[in-house]
Automatic annotation (TrEMBL):
PROSITE patterns: TAT. It comes from Conexibacter stalactiti. This is Uncharacterized protein. Keywords: Signal. Residues 1-34 form the signal peptide. It comes from the Bacteria.
Amino acid sequence: MLDVSRAVVRARLAAGVAAAAAAALALAAPVAHAAAADTGDRTYLIKSIDIHQSEEWRSQVSGYPNRCRTWQFAEGRSNLGVAQQGTRTMRVQRLPFGGLVGTFDGSNWGLSELRRTLDWRSHSVPDVAGCSPCGPNSEYGQCSGAAPPDETARPRCAPPRGRGLIVLSLTDAGLSVGAVPNLDKELERCPEPPKAAPRGTMQWRLETVRFKEAPQTLARMGLYKEHTFRRETTVDRAGGCRRLRGVGFRSCVAYTVVVVVRRIG
């Protein structure tokens, strides 16, 4: 009788273990399926791309603004940007041998914008008493009183928007974003500053920026979630990003890249 009872208990325990295992497998199956699906290809909408570079600069010599000294003074601002709104999609594919690659659909072109200003002034010493060794008893003779007018120039440049080529790539190394503004026609409409006037240091191109964190960030994004990649850098010359005023040439160049991405598949 005892052996029969033990056999019944063992059978019931075995049945319970089997039922629990089956339930665990049933619960794990959707999770495993979701995890497997999550390793497949993904599709993202590039909602917006904004690449912008600006510079503020100032140049002055030690005599500025003394009336009896020769000096030049100049200051200027330059802005260059390329932007694109919601015209591209990015498909992220896992490669069989490991790693990933992004393929892009849609237009490569965005709108480019150029703005440039310059204020320049050149001053010469007037032939007047107190500024020149002239005078009634001077070997230089009498003062003529002549005060040559300052040379000035204020060229402004703000042509209509043009087109710029936006270059994107995605690999394991990150998401690279760059642009090539097409400025030939725009710069033709910009007046040339005087040859004697100093210029800013900004180049009329937009450097490529790489977001190294992009592959991991994109992999963690849920469906219909958005993420903004942003990078801001500055190039400070002679402390220009802290204070533009002072003797010499000072400049501050700011470079900003913003990419907004939304997962759509």
